[in-house]
TrEMBL record:
It is a multi-pass membrane protein. The chain crosses the membrane at residues 6-28, 40-61, 67-89. InterPro entries: PhaG_MnhG_YufB (IPR005133). PANTHER family: ANTIPORTER SUBUNIT MNHG2-RELATED. This is Na(+)/H(+) antiporter subunit G. Belongs to the CPA3 antiporters (TC 2.A.63) subunit G family. One of its GO terms (cellular component) is membrane. It is found in: Membrane. Its main location: membrane. Keywords: Antiport, Membrane, Transmembrane, Transmembrane helix, Transport. NCBIfam families: CPA3_mnhG_phaG, PRK12586.1, PRK12674.1-2.
């Protein structure tokens, strides 16, 4: 085991931790549910994936142990987090949760609320 191998794994874990930290700040600071879901899904997914890849590399390099559990964790986080965030944002939009006042245009309004717009 070389020290540089551990450093590579540690850099992946550190990068993942920093990305998750920035994602947490985004969840706190962003103005509405739509931008918060973007921060929660995209960057935290990348952060968790980086952390899991770093852990996988560490165990693979240091102990020669290939963990299928880590591979499955990477797969399920990569698959489920963006889908869940999309469904939450879509549900919020359909239930009429308002966009932030800083939003310039609502392109989905004509598709989701055709009946209400035609009545006016």
């Amino acid at each position: 085991m070389h020290g540089s191998d551990e450093v590579i794994a540690a850099l992946f874990i550190l990068a993942g931790s920093i990305i998750v930290f920035v994602s947490a700040i985004g969840i706190i600071r962003l103005p509405d549910v739509y931008t918060r879901s973007h921060a929660a899904s995209k960057s935290s997914t990348l952060g968790v994936l980086s952390t899991l890849v770093g852990t996988l590399l560490y165990f693979l390099i240091s102990e020669g142990y290939f963990s299928i559990r880590l591979i499955m964790g990477i797969f399920f986080v990569f698959l489920t987090a963006p889908v869940a965030a999309h469904l939450i944002a879509r549900s919020a939009y359909r239930n009429g949760v308002p966009l932030t006042e800083k939003s310039i245009e609502d392109e989905l309004k004509k598709y989701y609320f055709e009946n209400e717009l035609s009545k006016k």
